[in-house]
Amino acid sequence: MKKVTVKTLFQESENWINKKIRVSGWVRTVRDSKSFGFIEINDGTFFKNLQIVFDDSLPNFKEVAKLGVGSAIVVDGELVESPGAKQPFELKATAVDIQGPATDDYPLQKKRHSFEFLRTIAHLRPRTNTFSAVFRVRSLLAFAIHKFFQERGFVYVNTPIITSCDCEGAGEMFRVSTLALNNLPRTKEGNIDFGEDFFGKETNLTVSGQLALEPFSMAFKDVYTFGPTFRAENSNTTRHAAEFWMLEPEMAFADLNDNMNLAEEMFKYLINYCFEHAPEEMEFFNSFIDIGLFERLNNVVSSDFARITYTEAIELLQKEKVDFEYPVEWGRDLQTEHERFLTEKIFRKPVFVTNYPKDIKAFYMRINEDNKTVAAMDLLVPGVGEIIGGSQREERLDYLIKRMDELQLNKEEYWWYLDTRRYGTNKHAGFGLGFERAIMYLTGITNIRDVIPYPRTVGSIEF
RNA sequence: UCCUCGGUAGCUCAACGGUAGAGCAUUCGGCUGUUAACCGAAGGGUUGUAGGUUCGAAUCCUACCCGAGGAGCCA
User: Fold this and answer.
1) pTM attached to this predicted model
2) What percent of chain A has pLDDT over 70?
3) Within 7 Å: CB of A359 and strand B?
4) Contact (CB, 8 A) for A325 and A337
5) Does at least one atom of strand B sit less than 7 Å from the CB of A231?
6) Nearby residues of A44 by Cβ (< 8 Å), 6 or more positions away
7) Å: A111 CA to B14 C1'
8) How many angstroms is C1' of B35 away from CA of A33?
9) What per-residue confidence (pLDDT) applies to A63?
10) Strand ranges inside A393-459, DSSP E
């Protein structure tokens, strides 16, 4: 008996119609009658289910008719055209092997569940339509990112997960230590003696691979890192997680415009890739998760992203007769309400905002001629907000040192980073893309906890 | 961390000071082409926890726990 996946059946049904085949999968629903019944199974290879028709010629008809949702079965039979309107073909079963029945307390039902409930059963939710679609798209997007950069000659660099840089300025960090918490070694002054720790100094989980990546861009020109990133912030929102994935490309001999061009090209590539490789899933999102998703994404693919400076953004917002909760004032950071207004109301598409005041941005960003702003860029998108943050880097050693002194950073800690400015420095730029935020934008899912297989957020790590 | 809303059957919700209910799910029975199948029956509850007010609390009050949305921070 030839084993066939449901995906193969849907993609080349003409090759299998009227043939005897074997299909295995999990029961999604059973509808039985006195002497016959229907089972829909999903084998994980394809978004859609395969309908099985069975009757009392099966020796185990009664057991099959009583199968619960979630049971694992192997079905032999003949693929035939279906008289029903909802599916082109169905499998007429000659044998149903019940591998693993699901007990009657199986939590997933044949009806809609709330996302909140499904988060409490994260180990079972990939068996639902929504999460099956989400996680297949997540997989495709991860591959598409590699494909995009590899096609353009970027070298993939695995930057470290454990770092000793404790002041990258991107937020609270998770400490990594093998010290016994109930018996900490102390120095003579009474401080914790990290010299006794595994690495001999304070270490944390990475909040960004950028600083480790820049030296590689000085060797390979175009590089990227893509991996897990950790922030120990006590933030409780639909778009923050303690563990998330970040993509960070870095280009040598490139400026802020090159940076934005790359981000825009990549974003459009990712959207097109999803439409091409997960049409069933995207159709589902557009119909059941976010009506209007296609319209929004098509608009993104076919139009140029808006590009404005921070100063222009402030002027635009000040002209609006809107009563913002936070004042719009040059020198203050844009609040979420301001960002949303720009991308959702004024432009109605992704917007790059560039050249922010230096005081609200990181030390490594390049100072502009005005000596007030830096060559930073944020990409704001409707619904999600900030999805990319990047900049042209300060490549001039004296400027960089001056800035680090102003911010009282410990230059010795960064000796190897500063070396890149001593030996063959050049204009270079890069950005960070929140992988989960990209998934949210492409699927219409509005909570980051629903695009991560096992999400880690404050006070929540059951799985 | 702050603000707001919420926690009632396995799930989604109703009851808003006077005997705790429905749909779905589950179990049993019926049904010869179903599509969230349909029809009939049954089981299922210390109403998040602990106090308080009251003749009487799911309902009002207090504290705590948990969840969600928004804000800050950011990707």
Assistant:
1) 0.94
2) 99
3) no
4) yes
5) yes
6) A25, A26, A132
7) 19
8) 14
9) 93
10) 428-434
Which among A98, A131, A120, A151 has a CA at the least distance from the CA of A284? Answer: A131
Residue A114 is predicted with a pLDDT of 93
Residue A82: burial class (beta carbons within 10 Å; 0-12, 13-18, 19+): middle
By the 8 A CB rule, do A208 and A201 touch? no
Q: Is the CB of A344 under 7 A from strand B?
A: no
Establish whether the CB of A90 is closer than 7 Å to any nucleic acid atom in strand B: yes
Q: Which nucleotide across the nucleic acid strands is nearest to A37, CA versus C1'? A: B34
Distance, CA of A221 to CA of A253 (rounded, Å): 8
Q: Name the residues in A99-138 having a C-beta closer than 7 Å to nucleic acid strand B.
A: 104-105, 107, 109-114, 116-117, 119
A263 CA vs B35 C1’ separation (Å):
44
How would you class A223 by CB atoms within 10 Å of its CB: exposed for 0-12, middle for 13-18, buried for 19 or more? buried
| Per-residue pLDDT reduced to its tens digit, A435-460 | 999 999 999 999 999 999 999 999 88
The pLDDT value given to residue A224:
98
State how far the Cα of A66 lies from the Cα of A61, in Å rounded to an integer.
9
Give the strand pairing for A2-3 and A20-32: parallel
Cβ count near A383 (within 10 Å): 17
Cα–Cα distance between A50 and A41 in angstroms, integer? 5
Q: Supply the ipTM of this predicted assembly.
A: 0.92
Token pair of A141 as six digits: 């997007």
Chain B nucleotides covered by protein, CB below 7 Å: 1-2, 10-13, 24-28, 30-37, 66-75
Whether the beta carbon of A144 falls within 7 A of nucleic chain B: the reply is: no
Minimum CA–C1' distance nucleotide for A38: B34
* Strand B at less than 7 A from CB of A150: no
State the maximum Cα–Cα separation within chain A, in Å, rounded to a whole number.
Answer: 85
pLDDT digits (tens, 9 = 90+) for A179-223: 998 889 999 998 899 999 999 988 999 999 999 999 999 999 999
Distance between the alpha carbon (CA) of A121 and the C1' atom of B33, Å? 35
Handedness of CA A269, A215, A436, A303 (dihedral sign): negative
